[in-house]
Design goal:
The chain has 143 residues and is α+β, with helices and mostly antiparallel strands. Helix content is 17%, strand content 36%. It contains 2 helices and 5 strands, in the order E-H-E-E-E-E-H.
Length: 143
């Protein structure tokens, strides 16, 4: 028997969780985390997730580009502290995947400070055009 997968409130499966230090330099003149830092946190978590599945697993050299990203700021986030980004699988297409994000603090895990998403498209290094999602990712998303 397999363990049930964790999901978000929309029933999307959890793919990965990352913890990222919030630094003094992330704070803007109003004393809260600058809005650009939220996107960097999502990016860091996304890169960590991608790195879990290296090209060597299936030999496919396709790489990811982001074609759309967004963030909804729900509650003021302050430093110091540690952010937790949870990545959930969204819509899976032929060459794309939408990831959904929840940003929390490790010392306040019940509160969602921001939500976001990013649409990733896999690209062939030979052609520079979209290519099917590599098997190493498709298998993780669909199981």
């Amino acid at each position: 028997m397999t363990a049930p997968r964790h999901t978000d409130t929309q029933g999307r499966p959890l793919l990965y969780t990352s913890q990222i230090q919030l630094r003094w330099g992330d704070v803007d003149q109003l004393g809260h985390i600058n809005n650009t830092v939220y996107f960097r946190c999502y990016e860091q978590a996304r890169v960590e997730w991608i790195d879990l599945y290296p090209q060597a697993l299936d030999g496919n050299p396709a790489y990811v580009v982001i074609v759309h990203t967004e963030c909804s700021f729900l509650k003021e986030l302050k430093a110091p502290g540690t952010a937790e980004v949870r990545i959930f699988a969204g819509e899976l297409g032929r060459s794309s995947l939408v990831q959904h994000y929840e940003l929390r603090r490790t010392d306040d895990p019940a509160t969602i400070y921001a939500t976001g998403s990013a649409k990733m498209v896999w690209v062939s290094p030979e052609t520079g055009r979209s290519t099917p999602v590599p098997d190493r990712f498709r298998q993780i998303i669909t199981t």
